[in-house]
Amino acid sequence: MNNILQADFDSIENLLELTKNQGVDFLKTLHERPTSTAKSMEDFRFLPETGLGTKEALADFNERFEPIIMASTGPRYWGFVTGGATPASIVGDWLSGIYDQNSQSVKGDGDVSARIELETIQLLLDLFELPKTYFGGFVTGATMSNFTSLAVARQWVGKQLGKDFAKEGVSEKIHVLTAVPHSSAVKSLAMLGLGSQNFTKIKVLEGNREAMDVQDLAKKLETLNGQPSIVIASGGTVNTVDFDDFVAIAKLKEKYQFWCHIDAAFGGFAVCSPTHKHLLNGWEMADSITVDCHKWLNVPYESAFFLVKEEHRFCQVETFQNSNAPYLGDPLDNFSYLNFLPENSRRLRALPAWFSLMAYGKKGYQDIVENSIKMAQIFGEYLENNAQFELLALTRLNTVCFTLVGEEGQVKVSSFLSKLNATGKVFMTPTMYDGKKGIRAAFVNWQTNEQDIEIVKAEMEKVLAGF
Ligand SMILES: *Cc1c(COP(=O)(O)O)cnc(C)c1O
Description:
- By secondary structure, the chain is an alpha/beta fold.
- It has helices spanning 3-10, 12-28, 54-64, 87-99, 113-127, 142-160, 165-168, 183-191, 214-222, 246-253, 313-320, 351-384, 406-422, 450-465, and strands spanning 134-139, 175-178, 200-201, 229-234, 258-263, 288-292, 304-309, 389-391, 399-404, 429-433, 436-442.
- The chain contains 14 helices and eleven strands.
- The protein has a seven-stranded mixed β-sheet with strand order 1-7-6-5-4-2-3, sandwiched between helices. Strands 8-9-11-10 form a four-stranded antiparallel β-sheet.
- The relative contact order is 0.14.
- It binds pyridoxal-5'-phosphate.
- Pyridoxal-5'-phosphate (PLP) binds at residues 81, 141-143, 182, 184, 236, 238, 263, 265-266, 292, 304.
């Protein structure tokens, strides 16, 4: 064996101890670590001829990279929709690497990793109060979850037309209808050969809303004259966290033939809050659902899952089976994840979620979600009561969308945000809403508390005073 590799393995206990101490250090000081950095990366290293050994590699990492790692997993990173990592999920993530399983198949001879994944999906169905008639699996993020779901939808549309698109290629126009899709759903349409511009836009409801006007949806479905289609609905839009009316969409299913996909990447977690769960009323009518775990479930990247109704099993296998590899077995007879989703070999991606769900249970996630909602409310109230700011949209759940008041505010808002982010005390993202430049703050991190809001308020006032 290579002698450096051997020496590393001989001192594995020491190496893991070093790593643990460094990890603990990072986590305990996370709230002090900056949320942005002005430093840029140095030149790339060349591959060493003889390796450094792990201890030296760690020293190099610590010298060059560690100091500029931002606290994006910390309590005042409010940009995009960025979750943290619960202690249990970190434990699961470490073990996932240590056990290094390939979550492909549930074989009689003891490959337990796919079984853990199947069990984790059951726990998630419990958490989201969804029927056990969904089949699900883990992918790297909501983008891949949208892609996976829409790939099965594409096959389903083909089936209604007497075609097998997976085998023959897409030969017909596939009608897609949606109001305010996430960019990743549109990207999925591009990846699936359906065309990122090839969808019908449904009107949104009047009165500062991003939810689709279901009457307009009905009108547009009617013009399809019975042709099958795909409807992409939102369980939480990114800007204003608006929800489509799933009960009303379900009613249309009685009359029209369409696949309904709901992108509930983070909005699905509203179910965990008794006061907000109504936002998802009727979502169990969906043929497929996307939920992200590396956002509000607070597990490390890369973690998301898709759910597809079990009745679409054939469409799913037709889409993803490894049909020219007989050694992988009959996809329906011998269950293998590799015939149900895009990837073949995968890490034990479900384990961090399994640990976190088992460690904190329903109550733990209710507390996390309700805390985020409360933080959004407190921050929103502060903005409303401050004459310099105005809300751009109602704070429906966990996201606050705001700007500086007036025309002058529109001129200043971008540089205000740059200056604020440069403080390293908080990070928020720019947005456009209702024709106005604005700022988004999304609350999904389990650690954010009222003290954090106070710190951010003080920084915002300092930046304003400096103009
Ligand atoms: C974040 C998000 C996505 C994309 O998720 P990734 O995890 O970045 O792939 C898709 N849809 C919605 C609604 C989102 O919020």
